[in-house]
Amino acid sequence: DAGVIQSPRHEVTEMGQEVTLRCKPISGHDYLFWYRQTMMRGLELLIYFNNNVPIDDSGMPEDRFSAKMPNASFSTLKIQPSEPRDSAVYFCASSLGFGGTDTQYFGPGTRLTVL
Amino acid sequence: AQSVTQLGSHVSVSEGALVLLRCNYSSSVPPYLFWYVQYPNQGLQLLLKYTSAATLVKGINGFEAEFKKSETSFHLTKPSAHMSDAAEYFCAVRIPGGNKLTFGTGTQLKVEL
């Protein structure tokens, strides 16, 4: 398997613009996670899905953030409108299960810069 | 709630020297513990995990970690550092029956000639 695929790898945009990050999980994995990594806050879980259904979005910082998973092989994280403080690396991860000793497999991340 | 503390945000060792990265956990029950590595411009990769089967866990690339309940620790070690080990290392915890993985703040390992 190719692993978790994320696109784009880098995104530079201006404040106020809409940003869409994309993720393709590992085939057969039932769980998908979106994380944000910053120097100040470390690695934060934003939202996770089980079988394409959002289960916990308590980590989503504001209404400007939204995530969807229309099918088992694709998810998006959208920020509208974007702000400079959204600048971070966004990771997508997937796993077979969620709990116990299940391993999460991470994608390479999208480095977002909002000017 | 569970948490992990990684002592030392930056650790520097000489090539060939022992690597020791510290992780202490806080949990109301014996937890599951993980070490992940992040190479520059890449995602996190699992190094090893403690699943309560054995207290000494061996992982990839020569790394190992020992679960010590009395010290609430899960330190990561490698006998001889290699230049390719330079990366950021994250300790993470999950309680049995729980689901969320809680990450530490990370330790940046630098390996010098």
Supply the key terms.
heterodimer, A: 115 residues, mainly beta, seven-stranded mixed beta sheet, 0% helix, 54% strand, B: 113 residues, six-stranded mixed beta sheet, globular
Sum this structure up briefly.
The complex is a heterodimer of chains A (about 120) and B (about 110). Chain A has about 120 residues and is mostly beta strands. Chain A has strands at about 5, 10-15, 20-25, 30-40, 40-50, 55, 65-70, 75-80, 90-95, 105, 110-115.
Our count of helices of chain A gives 0
Q: How do the SSEs of chain B run, as a string of H and E?
A: EEEEEEEEEEEE
Oligomeric category? heterodimer
Principal-axes geometry of chain B comes out as: globular
Structural classification of chain B: mainly beta
**Which radius of gyration of chain A do the C-alpha atoms yield?**
13 Å
Cα-to-Cα separation, first versus last residue of chain B: 41 Å
Number of strands of chain B: 12
Q: Hey, which two chains have the biggest interface?
A: A-B, 17 and 23 residues
Label the overall shape of chain A: globular
Helix content of chain A: under 10%
Approximate helicity band of chain B: under 10%
Please indicate the percent range of residues of chain A in DSSP E strands (runs of 2 or more). Answer: over 45%
- Total strand count of chain A, please? 11
What structural class is derived from the secondary structure elements of chain A? mainly beta
Regions with little confidence, pLDDT below 50 for 5+ residues of chain B? none
In whole angstroms, the N-to-C terminal distance of chain A is 36 Å
Q: Could you describe the largest sheet of chain B, including whether it forms a barrel?
A: 6 strands, mixed
Beta fraction of chain B: over 45%
* Alpha carbon gyration radius of chain B: 13 Å
Count of discrete alpha- or pi-helical segments spanning 4 or more residues of chain B: 0
Structural overview:
The complex is a heterodimer of chains A (115) and B (113). With 115 residues, chain A is an all-beta fold. Helices cover 0% and strands 54% of the residues of chain A. Chain A is built from no helices and 11 strands. In chain B, the strands form 3 sheets. In chain B, strands 2, 5, 6, 10, 11 and 12 form a 6-stranded mixed beta sheet that branches. In chain B, strands 3-9-8-7 form a 4-stranded antiparallel beta sheet, with no helix packed on it. In chain B, β5 (32-38) and β6 (44-50) form a beta hairpin. Chain B is globular, with a radius of gyration of 13 Å. The model of chain B has no long low-confidence stretch (mean pLDDT 92). The chains are: A mainly beta (115), B mainly beta (113). Chains A and B meet through β5 and β10 of A and β5 and β6 of B.
